[in-house]
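FAQ: What does the model actually see?

It sees only this:
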Amino acid sequence: MIEVSRTLSVNDGTEPVLQVDDVWAGLLDKAANPLAYVAGMSKCTVTERFDGGLVREVVHAGQPVREVVTFYPKQRVHFVRTHGTARGTIDNEIGLGDTGELTLAFSFRIVLDGVEPGSAAEKEFARHMEADYLDAVRTTLAAVRDRVAGATTGISA
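And it is asked to produce this:
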């Protein structure tokens, strides 16, 4: 099993300063429209919406994946990969760091079909997935900043 967790400070000195509501809006957009956020994702179709979440079919790293996405308002977006060669969970979580700063964390726990645990192939997949998701978190925060800055200046993003 591949397990990775990273936490980034949301307000790292880049303007505008973001609030929880801003980050939450970005996470909701990323859940329904991930192509602009996740470099390795080439397709997404939301197949179902339910109270508190959605089901989507995506193509990530060339592989079809089905994900059930559950929203825990203003706290966490939880993805369960139910179909595909890489199954498991992914979380995007809004939190507070040790000094009270706003943070955004991502973590994933993924099992690869047909790949030996601890093998070079598993480590390579983990490296690519971690890089994709770290980039997705940064891209999400940049998009949220653009949206907030546009709202502040009256320019739509």
